[in-house]
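Dear Dr. V.,

Thank you for agreeing to look over these. As mentioned in my earlier message, I'm a first-year student in the group and I'm still getting used to reading structure tokens, so any feedback on how I've presented them would be very welcome. I ran two proteins. I've put each sequence directly above its structure. The first is here:
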Amino acid sequence: MLQIQALEGIPEITAGDDLVAIIADAAGDTLRDGDIVVVTSKIVSKAEARTVQADDREDAITAETVRVVASRTSESGHVTRIVENRLGMISAAAGVDASNTPQGTVLLLPLDPDASARAIATGLRELLGARVGVIVSDTLGRAWREGQTDAAIGAAGVAVFEDLRGQTDAEGRLLVVTQPCVADEIASAAELVKGKAARRPVAIVRGRGDLVGDLDLPGARSIVRPAERDMFRLGTDEAYDQGYAAGVEEMWEERDTAG
């Protein structure tokens, strides 16, 4: 049976706070072997001093951006950028977030969410003696679907995929591509009890101890699809413009060759 419980009593996090000690104190003696601790990325960013002034938000987005996927300007003149950030994630505004932050500031994502998750998992295992996994979650939009859901951007001590390839379904058919991203599913399930405005940034997921393992398991970075397998690297307008420009260039090259 799957059980999900939000931890109460997590204080407002500031730069330099010891998240391991804070989570351990809130959890008390409730953590067990096989539990998965889901930590909202915002408190990781706050503890790691990833805060910048809100006036610098657009500059921060630019600094965090590796590649612009799509950009749209609303009727009010506001520009929304969907970009690939330095972590390889595709998201709005490179993950730079103004919610649940002190007035006048915005938060950047952790520098290395997998390393952050590993540090928390290592600390909790040592402090509490429980073999737990840790997922660092963040809210992402999804192509083709309205709304947002939480996903794993960092992971340690927990399998991020459940590989069912090579097994058979209930009808005996071979499963060829079935590989659920269980880290994303767990992050999303944990959000159901954490909430966006309830000040419960940590949840414990119990019942999937089979996914918990060594701290050197692949992290959430392994979830990011490699560029060579990405069939949707650009927004529709951007792909059209790029294709049109390439066609015009090819036309002029052919005319130059023909003399």
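The second protein is here, in the same arrangement:
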Amino acid sequence: MGLYEASFRLKHECPYRAISERYPDLTIREWYLSDCQVLEITSATAPTDELLAEIERIGTVLHESIDDDGLQVVTRACLCSLEGSILERFEEHDCLYQPPTIHRQGWEHYTVIAFDEADVRALLRDLEGDRDIELLSKTAVTEQAIPHSMLAPVDQLFEGLTDRQLAALQLALEHGYYEQPRGTSLRELASQTSIARSTYEEHLRKAENKLMANAGTYLRLVTSRTGTDPLDAGRAESAGRYAD
């Protein structure tokens, strides 16, 4: 199975793109989380009060810090509805979005990976219909290692998990439940909550199941590069049929 990576830049009405156009020395890198965004802003010069005020007007600032690399800001979900529509178009054409989105000099830079080159072409044609767009690169990456950390947007991995399921998963992780040997038990974890053990276990199992289901697409993407079966699962299945 071939994989294809495409990088392109486009223009549409997004507040961060507009800021990068007004401040051409800025580079804004944008990551999407479940209920907010992480914006990393770098510049050759220190950010001005005017720029900080402009970012605060766009959305609710949860955290900000300034260091030698520039300004780092965490805001709640972008108020620009068109931004979300672009990500939805990626999904419609079976293209996997590779974060971050980079805003520079009035352009938004995106990278996607698809299983079929035709999906990439269809996506680009779709976007050309209502946006200025420039294709920067399109390459086959069948034999090329893809950074696993860049495959899955965090919000998609945790999509569908309730607050209680997320809390149950976090509690188990923090107390070593998934370590070998286990650092705790379900009984001990449940005792730290106000709910019954059976209820806690139900939240945890549902969280695990949803997480693995969401990760399935990205797991297939990673394993498709080699085409090998290190566990000989296919051979065992064939042997079972012959035995019957």
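From my reading of the second output: The CA atoms of residues 59 and 102 lie 18 Å apart. The chain has a mean pLDDT of 79. Does that match how you would interpret it?

Kind regards,
E.
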